[in-house]
């Protein structure tokens, strides 16, 4: 909270968690929303009336009722009780000794069925009939509540399931807040090569490079706005070390990075198009959804992105000065393209939870994947 960082933790005490969840749920002013990264991304897609969405995950009665009509849940995914995630939203300002620099949230849950990735096999077996154009996966961070042995076994099964998805269908993985470096490192080495695209924020990016000994991994935390050059060095390293190349059997060719004041879309050349629109759409939805407005309300947003920055801290770096008339900046490095956009940040956000999911969904919606992929 002192850093204004988003975080999520597994709550291990089942009884206490259920007591808290019950009290929260029955509270007169309680608000129930669709939860879970995949469900939120699915909801965002379903808002486009010509898109059909298949959602697999532990779906209880309340969640089922909240889902859009365009979201189809296979019967095997339905369960008798809902899983709850508790979201503590806070505004910028003081709380006791702490001073939050900006609004954010802390999430906690005791969610075992998502943690065990229970519905993955159901999902893959439903794909043949559904014939998707895109697959989105999330929830790997929920495995932190599982034993080490189970994590290792389940991760291998996850990779096997992903490889069962028909060739040519892009697979996007949405990351989330984690604390277990060993699990993060396993995800980087085992899961990354099996997926096509990644979505993550600055906390996840720094934790990822620390866990897998990437560039700037000695940095313990971001100091204010994450440095653009550092971020792009880490994105470059992920795609160079774990992404697709002539010498590596990896499918990973795209990363959509988001932080409060700017977003970057990094893509391996030859696999994606329409990046400018995709990264701009992600920035636009960040401004509208946080303020709960249909379009950007200029009186309620502020431009807090760096006005100038280095594109890298290696010898490849160049200095960029932001041009308001052409806000999306593009640069290239060894066969990888970077598209940077500032974000019009909502000054008085209604809620911050699910923003990353909306950003990733919009970015994917506007992304064109090359069929020869």
UniProtKB/TrEMBL annotation:
PROSITE patterns reported for this sequence: ADPK
Molecular function, one GO term: metal ion binding
Subcellular location: Secreted
Annotated keywords: Glycolysis, Kinase, Magnesium, Metal-binding, Secreted, Signal, Transferase
Record-level GO cellular component terms: endoplasmic reticulum; extracellular region
Protein name: ADP-dependent glucokinase
Membership in a protein family: Belongs to the ADP-dependent glucokinase family.
Biological role: Catalyzes the phosphorylation of D-glucose to D-glucose 6-phosphate using ADP as the phosphate donor. GDP and CDP can replace ADP, but with reduced efficiency.
Subunit and partners: Monomer.
Catalytic activity: D-glucose + ADP = D-glucose 6-phosphate + AMP + H(+)
Source organism, top-level taxon: Eukaryota
Matching Pfam families: ADP_PFK_GK (PF04587)
Broad EC category: transferase
GO biological process: glucose metabolic process; glycolytic process
EC number(s) recorded for this UniProt protein: 2.7.1.147
């Amino acid at each position: 909270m002192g850093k204004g960082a988003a975080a999520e933790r597994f709550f291990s005490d089942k009884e206490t968690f259920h007591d808290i969840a019950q009290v929260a749920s029955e509270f007169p002013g309680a608000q129930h929303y669709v939860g879970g990264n995949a469900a939120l991304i699915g909801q965002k897609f379903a808002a486009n009336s010509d898109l059909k969405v298949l959602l697999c995950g532990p779906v209880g009665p309340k969640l089922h009722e909240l889902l859009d009509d365009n979201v189809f849940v296979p019967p095997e995914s339905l369960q008798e009780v809902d899983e709850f995630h508790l979201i503590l939203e806070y505004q910028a300002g003081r709380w006791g000794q702490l001073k939050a620099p900006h609004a954010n949230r802390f999430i906690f849950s005791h969610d075992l069925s998502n943690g065990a990735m229970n519905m993955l096999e159901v999902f893959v077996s439903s794909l043949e009939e559904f014939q998707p154009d895109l697959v989105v996966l999330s929830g790997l961070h929920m495995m932190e509540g599982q034993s080490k042995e189970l994590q290792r076994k389940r991760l291998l099964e996850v990779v096997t399931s992903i490889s069962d998805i028909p060739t040519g269908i892009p697979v996007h993985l949405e990351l989330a807040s984690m604390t277990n470096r060993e699990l993060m490192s396993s995800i980087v080495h085992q899961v990354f090569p099996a997926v096509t695209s990644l979505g993550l924020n600055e906390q996840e990016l720094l934790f990822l490079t620390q866990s897998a000994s990437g560039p700037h991994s000695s940095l313990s935390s971001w100091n204010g706005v994450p440095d653009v050059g550092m971020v792009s060095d880490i994105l470059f390293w992920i795609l160079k070390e774990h992404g697709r190349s002539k010498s590596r059997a990896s499918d990973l060719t795209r990363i959509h990075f988001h932080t409060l004041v700017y977003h970057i879309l990094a893509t391996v050349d030859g696999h994606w198009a329409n990046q400018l629109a995709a990264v701009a759409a992600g920035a636009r939805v960040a401004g509208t959804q946080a303020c709960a407005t249909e379009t950007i309300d200029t009186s309620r947003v502020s431009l807090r992105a760096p006005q100038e920055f280095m594109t890298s801290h290696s010898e490849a770096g160049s200095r960029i000065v932001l041009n308001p008339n052409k806000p999306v900046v593009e640069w290239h490095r060894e066969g990888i393209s970077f598209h940077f956009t500032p974000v019009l940040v909502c000054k008085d956000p209604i809620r911050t939870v699910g923003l990353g999911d909306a950003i990733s969904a919009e970015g994917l919606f506007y992304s064109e994947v090359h069929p020869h992929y």
